[in-house]
Every structure is written in C-alpha cells, then in structure tokens.
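User: What would this chain look like folded?
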Amino acid sequence: MQTTEIPVCDFGSFGDDVRHFWMDDLNSLLQHFPILEDPHKQHFFMMLFIDDAKGEVSIDNQKINLDGSKVIVIKPRSISSIHINSKAKGKIICFTDDFFSLRYNNNVLNQFSFLYNASKSFVRLNEKEKNKWVYLLEIFFQEFKFQKRETVKILRSYLNIFLFELERLSNPQGYAPDSTMKQQKVREFEKLIDLHFKFKKMPSAYADLLNISPNYLNKICKEISNCTAGDLIRKRIILEAQRLLHYTNHSVNEIADQLGFESTSYFVTFFKKQINNTPEQFRKASNE
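Assistant: Here's the prediction, encoded as structure tokens.
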C-alpha cells in the first residue's frame, strides 16, 4: 500500500492516558487497534510474545511467520504491519527509552543486543522456555492491569527482568566485559545516524560528535558490527530510501531531496551501487 505519508502510531493510539508503557493480550488486537494492521512507523519499542497464533509480522523488508512460539522485537522508526488472527494467544508490550531510563541509566538499555538496529528481529522459544514466558508475562500483565501503589516502579523492574531473559535467549554467550564501552560507542553512533543521516553522510562528522577519531570509529564499528562506519551510514540511507519507495508515492526526485542528495542522478547512482537496482526497479519489484 502506497500513501503520501507513512502513518505514525503513537502511544495515544492505545488510550488517552497512555504515555510511556503499555501492554495487552494479543486476542482481538487488530479489532481494537486497526492502525497496527497497515504499514506504520512508531517511536517506541514493541515486543510481541507469540504463544499460539497465525499470521505474519512485517518489519521493513523482513516478513516473520507466526508459525510457533517466539518473541518478536519491533524497533523505533521501523515500518511494520501486523497480520494476526483474532484468537491469537500471547502478549504485546510497548515502551519508550524514557520509561526505562527513569530508573535505569540509558547505557544499561544499550547492553541488550536484540534492541540494536542490525540485530535479529525475533527469537524462537522451545516448550520449556514458552511455559516460563507465559508465567512471567501473566504476572507482568496483572501488575499493569490493576495499577496498585508503586506499580510504575514494579513495571520497570519486571521489564528489566524481561529484557535480561530475552538477552539470554538471543545472545547465550554474552559479551566480553572489556568490549562494553566499544559497544556503547557504536550504539551511540547508530543513534546519531538515525538523527542526522539525511544531512551528515561522512563518518568524520559523527566522529566529531562522539569526540573520537574517524579511524577509531571505523575500527570499533568493524569489531562490533563487522561493518565500517561508512557501511552503517549507507545502510541507514538505503533503508530509508527503500521505505519511501515501497510505502509512499513520492517521486524519485522528491525522495532524493528528502534524503539530502544534491541531485537525483547522484541518488540513483548511489542507490544502484548499494543494491544493484535503480530506485524505480526496486519500487516496481517491491510492489508486485
């Protein structure tokens, strides 16, 4: 589906009083919140715990079948759509950076590898793991529903446990302690790319913002993500270009301008070099 602008799902979609945290059953999810069915952006984290469901979740260019128990992570600024049956079993959790950082330092949130931009979007659960998650999430959900004294503090604590449990599943080996600062710096770099990629396209500009040298930035990016700093910038630009080509009816000229390219021809050359297709070829193939 192409539109002039991509719809944005904010916390107000879930209720007038919802600000930084929300959760619910998956049962009849789309009947209650139809905005989730069509492609949309959001500026918060969304996690789907799939116990038993049928359908598909699309996140940018990835399609995830609901063919078993799993946890699906939809990151801020992704374009996603959810197609799920009305009798699905499971939970949905949404939270902002701010909700977590009101108690925990932002750097702690950065340590969860599955929240990184380039990380995998889902983790499968075996039967034993699924039963544990059903139990944990039901306690979590009861606290959210009844809103007793100090509920917000308790929800943050449960969310912290939830994230650590998910980290164990997605990254069993964990990270070496001496790499933590490098990981943090790369995550800061990725966040800066999200904010500035339309206008800052050279690694040196980000190195200045991070108060490190371009060579060091490139070194830690290779070490942590197996990509150069330039690769990460180009990937983010291409991802946004693909989103605009697939989900909007903006012309290639308009998209080139939105992405900060000096000319349409330069944008077309850049795009083709990265994915071996012109923007028009990509748009035609993605909409077939």
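The mean pLDDT is 88. If you want, I can go into more detail on any region.
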